């Protein structure tokens, strides 16, 4: 068979066409960027790089388009592949690392960059995410001269989170900005008012922020759901203000609505869940744990916050972990609580919360001594943060019955060790520990400190009064008298003079009589015979104004005896007093066997003759009638057995009689 001939009609391959000119590609690239079509912009940039691999503008456009398209990983790989090209992408690399929450690496990438406004703004954002608010505020204040739009919004947020909420109002007045200029600034200003405990003003400003936000976003033609998501932080903060204002029901309803509808950004949703759990408390621990489970990474073995929550501040993330641990302790899930606490020490190395949680776990495990040891070590290691650690140690030690450890912990807190409440607590703890001299020295040092303190609200008289009472209680009358003398000289207190008289009377009666003459005579006591008063049995203490004896007698004469009010008797329902019927039995409250009408039941004597199982009596009678050849010894034994059985039955009480006895 001859071979087939080739198709002559088949078209030949098209001729090679040259790529479009770079100028045309850049024109197309610019159109896609103007339309915010960043995926197509990346493709066109790749075409340009296919023609000119070292084109700096094409590389820059591709990196920016990838960042705009939220393809951060591809943007980083593009920057890595362009290292051989002499183009500095350090700024873009730092931004990508910032988006990936690799903050330390982002700062390293920014080193050596020119201190222009863009670089400083990114640096401030990195510091904000790291929780270094003071450094962040310093950078923002340097940028104020650059007149960057919305800079005051970020500055207000940094001041609030940095514990400087009182400076927000001054910053706005200095820049001549009103809180209502934007809903973001109104929201941040309201947060500063919350930090200053001005909850009503904050509520009004939050409502204003929500109204301004709705108007602004509707002008931008956003959908209703998108507007609600954008304004979710304001809704969560309004619920929090209701919680602070003592409206738990309204706050709970708001949190529940935000959680169920799920129309909120990730950060606002997390805050709503955490606040809902904290407001609910330990009423339903299992449900609260399930709520917090919605925040964790799905594939993680333990509890770990999901990726994408980088916008949460370190303080917010720490609070969520702390609430999780406390709920686990209430649920008695010690292993899970221990695992979380072990990871928190590295995650929040600059915070004392992991140490406090570790102590809480140890106390729950009945290891109070170990908890006291850990808190004491960290207090010595971090003296700037030792106050809360020492307070926790004092509380744990006092609850565990270690008063000396608790007192020593409070003594190491210089800010409060001379306050009256702290002094009273330390003295009580040392008294419980038997350290009377130590308690006395605490009072003496407090008196010395308040004597030298230059304050308007001095507590010297309170401390001295309590110190004198303490010394009297422990038999140190001379020291107590000295303190009372100082109080009388410095304050002229009548209570101190009375205390001085009673104290000195125990040591020197003549001297006490001299002090007693300084007391003012009581009104109405001139006509009283002291000798006859001493012979009486005493008088009852009466509240009200102090009256003389004559006035009291006149008042007694004026008083008339009160007539007793007659009340109609109350009868049971359906009772007719005209026809009361037969009188009730006077013995109705007595047990039946104690009543006169009681007759005990007659016992059947034949019951005592029944022995053994059914048919035993018949068989015994048959055997007795058929044969009478038993010996006398066997008869005597059977009689003894019968007598013993009868005695046993008589000694055993019946169920009815025992029940009647129990009713008596």
UniProtKB/TrEMBL annotation:
The keyword Repeat does not apply. Residues 552-600 form the Signal recognition particle SRP72 subunit RNA-binding domain. The lineage of its organism: Eukaryota, Viridiplantae, Streptophyta, Embryophyta, Tracheophyta. Residues 625-656 have a biased composition (Low complexity). This is Signal recognition particle subunit SRP72. It holds the Pfam family SRP_TPR_like. Gene3D superfamilies: Tetratricopeptide repeat domain. Belongs to the SRP72 family. It comes from Manihot esculenta. Component of the signal recognition particle (SRP) complex, a ribonucleoprotein complex that mediates the cotranslational targeting of secretory and membrane proteins to the endoplasmic reticulum (ER). It is found in: Cytoplasm; Endoplasmic reticulum.
């Amino acid at each position: 068979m001859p071979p087939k001939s080739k198709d002559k009609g088949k078209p030949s391959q098209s001729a090679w066409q040259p790529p479009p000119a770079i100028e045309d590609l850049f024109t197309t690239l610019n159109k896609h960027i103007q339309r915010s079509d960043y995926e197509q912009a990346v493709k066109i940039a790749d075409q340009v790089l296919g023609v000119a691999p070292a084109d700096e503008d094409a590389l820059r456009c591709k990196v920016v388009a990838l960042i705009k398209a939220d393809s951060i990983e591809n943007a980083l790989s593009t920057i890595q592949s362009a290292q051989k090209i002499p183009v500095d992408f350090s700024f873009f690399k730092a931004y990508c690392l910032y988006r990936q929450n690799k903050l330390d690496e982002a700062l390293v990438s920014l080193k050596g960059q020119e201190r222009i406004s863009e670089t400083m703004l990114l640096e401030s954002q990195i510091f904000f995410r790291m929780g270094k608010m003071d450094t962040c505020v310093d950078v923002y204040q340097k940028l104020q001269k650059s007149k960057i739009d919305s800079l005051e919004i970020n500055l207000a947020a940094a001041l609030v989170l940095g514990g400087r909420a009182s400076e927000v109002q001054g910053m706005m007045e200095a820049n001549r900005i009103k809180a209502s200029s934007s809903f973001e600034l109104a929201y941040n200003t309201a947060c500063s008012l919350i930090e200053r405990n001005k909850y009503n003003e904050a509520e009004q400003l939050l409502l204003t922020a929500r109204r301004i936000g709705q108007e602004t976003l509707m002008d931008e033609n956003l959908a209703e759901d998108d507007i609600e998501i954008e304004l979710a932080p304001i809704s969560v903060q309004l619920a929090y203000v209701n919680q602070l204002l003592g409206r738990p029901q309204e706050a709970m309803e708001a949190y529940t609505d935000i959680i169920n509808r799920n129309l909120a950004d990730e950060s606002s949703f997390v805050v709503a869940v955490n606040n809902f759990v904290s407001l609910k408390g330990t009423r339903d621990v299992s449900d609260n744990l399930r709520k917090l489970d919605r925040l964790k990474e799905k594939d993680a073995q333990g509890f770990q916050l999901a990726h994408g929550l980088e916008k949460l501040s370190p303080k917010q993330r720490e609070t969520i972990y702390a609430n999780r641990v406390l709920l686990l302790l209430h649920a008695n899930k010690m292993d899970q609580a221990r695992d979380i606490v072990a990871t928190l020490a590295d995650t929040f190395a600059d915070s004392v919360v992991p140490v406090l949680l570790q102590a809480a776990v140890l106390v729950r495990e009945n290891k109070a001594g170990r908890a006291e040891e850990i808190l004491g070590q960290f207090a010595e290691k971090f003296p700037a943060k030792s106050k809360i650690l020492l307070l926790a140690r004092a509380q744990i030690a006092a609850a565990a019955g270690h008063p000396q450890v608790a007192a020593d912990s409070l003594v190491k807190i210089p800010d409060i060790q001379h306050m009256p409440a702290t002094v009273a607590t330390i003295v009580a703890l040392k008294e419980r520990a038997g350290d009377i001299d130590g308690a006395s020295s605490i009072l003496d040092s407090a008196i010395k400190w308040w004597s030298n303190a230059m304050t308007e609200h001095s507590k010297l008289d309170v401390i001295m009064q309590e110190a004198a009472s303490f010394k009297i209680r422990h038999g140190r009358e001379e020291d107590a008298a000295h303190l009372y003398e100082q109080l009388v000289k410095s304050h002229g207190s009548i209570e101190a003079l009375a205390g001085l008289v009673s104290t000195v009377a125990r040591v020197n009666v003549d001297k006490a009589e001299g002090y007693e003459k300084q007391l003012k005579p009581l009104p109405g006591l001139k006509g009283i015979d002291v000798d006859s008063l001493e012979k009486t049995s005493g008088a009852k203490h009466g509240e009200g104004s102090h009256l003389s004896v004559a006035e009291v007698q006149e008042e007694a004469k004026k008083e008339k005896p009160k007539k007793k009010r007659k009340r109609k008797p109350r009868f049971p329902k359906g009772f007719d007093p005209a026809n009361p019927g037969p009188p009730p039995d006077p013995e109705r409250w007595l047990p039946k066997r104690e009543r006169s009408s009681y007759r005990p039941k007659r016992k059947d004597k034949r019951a005592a003759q029944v022995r053994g199982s059914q048919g035993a009596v018949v068989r015994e009678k048959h055997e007795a009638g058929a044969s009478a050849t038993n010996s006398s010894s066997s008869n005597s034994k059977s009689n003894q057995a019968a007598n013993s059985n009868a005695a046993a039955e008589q000694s055993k009480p019946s169920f009815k009689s025992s029940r009647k006895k129990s009713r008596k």
